[in-house]
Amino acid sequence: MSVRIGVLNVQGAVSEHVEHVRLAGAEPVLVKHPDDLQGLSGMVLPGGESTTIGKLMRKYGLLDPVRELAQKGLPVFGTCAGMILLASRIEGHDEPHLGVMDVTVNRNSFGRQRDSFEADVAVSGLSDDQPFPSVFIRAPHIVEAGPDVEVLATYDGKIVAARQGGLLATAFHPELTPDTRLHRKFVELAEAYQMATARH
């Protein structure tokens, strides 16, 4: 039985994530309403504009159900703005969005859109030791990570990828490269979750 992974479909690089989920061996499901969350074993939060995505998640009634699922162990993969959505603390902002990952993020730590760049980043825990081709577009970074958060990658001294249980976050856009290793890693988390929930 293939693993069903939701891709939040309100803004951002949705189709690229859908394709990467498919290439990683899972079944992508577009998520725009709470009903779309049924039967998922994982959820992807694409990049885009975090404030806008947060507002749209509230508008479509998705914020609370996604938060509850994440708190119960549903694997969630946040890229760029998705990392900000997952964070418990956002520098300069009172209110987090989902607030499920024990990290503090700085929203625009790598400059504006025109300062976008690509870099090869060493990411621990991938299937081989090759660096990951990482696309940074108005990227955030993690300023502080709690004791249960595993730092997977740094760039220029800044934390740009981390994992806490089933939560995976990258400051860069893996879906904008041909490399599917991070999506495959996430599908493994989703498969483990599916097996664990099937036993209960």
Structure in a nutshell:
This protein is of the alpha/beta class. Helices cover 26% and strands 30% of the residues.
Q: Can you describe this structure?
A:
With 200 residues, the protein is an alpha/beta fold. It has one domain: Class I glutamine amidotransferase (GATase) domain (Rossmann fold, 3-Layer(aba) Sandwich). The chain is built from five helices and twelve strands. The strands form three sheets. A seven-stranded mixed beta sheet has the order 2-1-3-4-12-11-10. Strands 5-6-9 form a three-stranded mixed beta sheet. A hairpin with a 2-residue loop joins strand 10 and strand 11. The relative contact order is 0.18. The model has no long low-confidence stretch (mean pLDDT 93).
Features of this protein?
3-stranded mixed beta sheet; alpha/beta; 5 helices; 200 residues; 26% helix
Overall residue-averaged pLDDT value: 93
Structural class: alpha/beta
**C-alpha geometry:** globular
Count of folded domains: 1
- What's the N-to-C terminus distance? 17 Å
> Looking at this structure, what is the CATH superfamily?
Class I glutamine amidotransferase (GATase) domain
Q: How are the strands of the largest sheet arranged? A: 2-1-3-4-12-11-10
